[in-house]
Write a structure and sequence with these properties.
With about 350 residues, the protein is an alpha/beta fold. The chain is about 40% helix and about 15% strand.
Length: about 350
Amino acid sequence: MYSFLRKILFLFPPESVHYFSMNMLKLLCAVPPFRWMIKKSFTPNRSGLSTTFLGLTFRNPVGLGAGFDKNARYLRELEALGFGYVEIGTVTPLPQAGNDKPRLFRLPSDQALINRMGFNNDGVATVVNRLKKWRASNKNPGIVVGGNIGKNKITANEDAWKDYEICFKELHPWVDYFVVNVSSPNTPGLRALQEKESLRKILMHLQMINNGKAQPKPILLKIAPDLNKAEIDDVIDLALEIKLDGLVATNTTISRENLQTPASTIEAIGAGGLSGAPVKNRSTEVVRYIQGRAGTQIPVIASGGIFTGDDAREKLHSGASLVQVWTGFIYVGPGIVKQICQDLPTHG
């Protein structure tokens, strides 16, 4: 069914289709009988999928990565589709329009996307207001919500820590965990913040604030797949040194190697982060390397090229505790969580 629908949707610009599809789902979920039918159709019904990670309980280990619901608009709808958790954002202190359109591109022959969105979002104040309303109407939500935070494009790197502080403080009462995003390729200079001393300044400052809270929230760092071994070692050493709660591996890549899409098409698209199947192996390599170096001392959420239960199992067997989908959701469709969970080992 979805394969047919996808052919129609893929005739239209990706970003427009994204919002059209989610707004249609929102309309359906506003009607209780339809929402019940959607939940019944797409929520995994296997027992033993519940997973505990960093003190949080997830109904299943399959989440939706940041960038899909940037502004916390679709939490009810994504819960109905069966996700165990949703990472909102990337959220910045001030609203941002992001980069010029078009900025999202499909590569169907590679089961991939290229995006250069540029942290387009409504700003932390608006996102917080949405989360407040959602929490007020969902006393026992079925999903865990993470907050992915970043800096505004106009903020100089030496002042980046201030932007992360603003987002962290504002979102703290309303999300269950945080992911610090310094690895998007679409904000000029952002990836320079992955350098060890820049990271230390940002992360230690957030931890100091977090430790002063009555209920501290887990803080994770999202890293790029393009880091070399020495750079990953620096991240691991810093994570161990400051007792970071975990890592998300990985973000999108700037690599364009081994693609089936014609080089002329890739060149015409231009800059942006590549996600989907081409990132799968590198993402798994990074997860495996972190596990080999740090074992259980650094918990990992795996992201990159997850389309099937086999893909998810590979990530989990490599040392990840949870997995995130994004591009796979676009290509596989709304049944992706249920399909993946059918093939996962249970804890029961």
